Amino acid sequence: NAGVTQNPKFQVLKTGQSMTLQCAQDMNHNSMYWYRQDPGMGLRLIYYSASEGTTDKGEVPNGYNVSRLNKREFSLRLESAAPSQTSVYFCASSEGMRPPTDYGYTFGSGTRLTVV
Amino acid sequence: QKEVEQNSGPLSVPEGAIASLNCTYSDRGSQSFFWYRQYSGKSPELIMSIYSNGDKEDGRFTAQLNKASQYVSLLIRDSQPSDSATYLCAVNSILAGGGNKLTFGTGTQLKVEL
């Protein structure tokens, strides 16, 4: 059982280049999320998908787009990378649509992105 | 005011002592709360969740919740060097369209010294 799988694990981009971060979960979770983590800033929500077919902006969506390809996969796209997007990106998933007994997230291993 | 606040630390405790980590949150409507542990260079992993006022124990970990004071804490008994990590407090919000969202604090770095 792989849980949440992210690819790539490391990436270096030049300013203005584009790329897509891939995320897939095999836990049949309804909800998926993209966070970025920067020193001193904690984890900040970029975009989320509460269920298949829906996506919404989080706290820091500018410069990003997402696609919920199916229930398993949720990708994050940087159309024109900027140095300010240098960060560690985490994908996470949760069951989502249940009574509030356990809304804990399962995180992927992260993508370390550097934009030069 | 940040939605979820934690002291960044580092909090240093000797091996075998009790480590106490604290968190305050601003949304009075929040219903569920989580503690995650994150080792350097790794992803966060869930330690405990708590939904009701009072204490919840799981092994060496105890989570405490006081909704009136908007305060969550995590106690680690018999601290071990392997407990050295950053501890993230997270607060759940129910989304209008269904599903849920976690808002994280910036984390408290814990160092357990031999």
Structure characterization notes:
The complex is a heterodimer of chains A (116) and B (114). Chain A is globular, with a radius of gyration of 14 Å. Chain A has no helices and 11 strands. The mean pLDDT of chain A is 91. Helices cover 0% and strands 50% of the residues of chain A. In chain A, the strands form 2 sheets. In chain A, strands 2, 4, 5, 6, 9, 10 and 11 form a 7-stranded mixed beta sheet that branches. In chain A, strands 1-3-8-7 form a 4-stranded antiparallel beta sheet, with no helix packed on it. Chain A is mainly beta. The mean pLDDT of chain B is 92. In chain B, β7 and β8 (71-76) form a beta hairpin. In chain B, strands 2, 4, 5, 9, 10 and 11 form a 6-stranded mixed beta sheet that branches. Chain B has a 5-stranded antiparallel beta sheet with strand order 1-3-8-7-6, with no helix packed on it. Chain B is globular, with a radius of gyration of 14 Å. Chain B has 114 residues and is mainly β. The termini of chain B are far apart. The A-B interface holds A 30-31, 33, 35, 40-45, 48, 50-51, 54, 56, 58, 90, 94, 96-97, 100-110 and B 8, 31-32, 34, 42-46, 49, 51, 88, 92, 94-95, 97-107.
Structure summary:
The complex is a heterodimer of chains A (116) and B (114). Helix content of chain A is 0%, strand content 50%.
Q: N-to-C terminal Cα separation of chain A, in Å?
A: 36 Å
- Rg of chain B is 14 Å
Q: Order of SSEs of chain A, N→C?
A: EEEEEEEEEEE
Subunit arrangement of the protein? heterodimer
